[in-house]
Amino acid sequence: MSTVLAVSHLASQRAGRTLFAELTFDLAQGEVLHIEGVNGAGKSTLLRSLVGLVQLQAGHITFFPEQPDLQQNWRAHTLFMGHKAGVKSELTALENVALQAQLCGVDNIDAWQLLETVGLLGLEDLPAGQLSAGQQRRIALTKLWYSNALLWILDEPFTALDTFGIELLQQKFAEHTANGGAIILTSHQQLTWQTERLKRLRIAGGDDAGY
Ligand SMILES: Nc1ncnc2c1ncn2[C@@H]1O[C@H](COP(=O)(O)OP(=O)(O)OP(=O)(O)O)[C@@H](O)[C@H]1O
């Protein structure tokens, strides 16, 4: 399985405080990297840095180093989801699912089927703003059911999900990695999913950082 991401000697500072330095890791197809750390340690900053949303002080990031065709167009093969659900509160659940797919450049989704998959059938016509935090998160997560991206970078994907939602998402992760995908995620909870291909990286907010 080839490497999807190679990261070396990354350093980041926020408001004069070093969040991480000399951070080096890589990730191969089929692997999951769980980024851990206390509130404010720098987990979201790291994920946002990987996709170019936050400027780094130092370091080097290479997507798909062994696959030049993917490397050249790495954004098309990488899905980033931030920690906010990011749904439009005035649009219905169904409209949100359709809009998200459109923004991802996918036009052949079955929005009803996706809503059923994530347990939202019956709520399709409600404005998303009237849905609970967990239900809004489920709308956002429908992307994972049609994404063609090889690498998923997910900031707190389990936030607000109930036990069933967490289990559903972990099943999706297992399917993605079994198909050669890779995942980097942050989460304050331990994954219940048992896999030998789970790596952990602890960000210690500048005190220490490493496997
Ligand atoms: N836009 C910003 N400008 C200045 N400082 C910021 C900014 N965003 C985050 N920070 C600071 O960077 C540090 C790391 O924040 P970050 O969101 O990466 O932490 P985190 O590990 O993801 O935390 P949490 O577990 O609470 O989500 C925090 O001290 C935060 O105050």
From TrEMBL:
SUPFAM superfamilies: P-loop containing nucleoside triphosphate hydrolases (SSF52540). Transmembrane segments: none annotated. Residues 5-209 form the ABC transporter domain. Keywords: ATP-binding, Cytochrome c-type biogenesis, Membrane, Nucleotide-binding, Translocase, Transport. GO terms for biological process: cytochrome complex assembly. It comes from the Bacteria. GO terms for molecular function: ATP binding; ATP hydrolysis activity; transmembrane transporter activity. This is ABC transporter domain-containing protein. It comes from Pseudidiomarina atlantica.
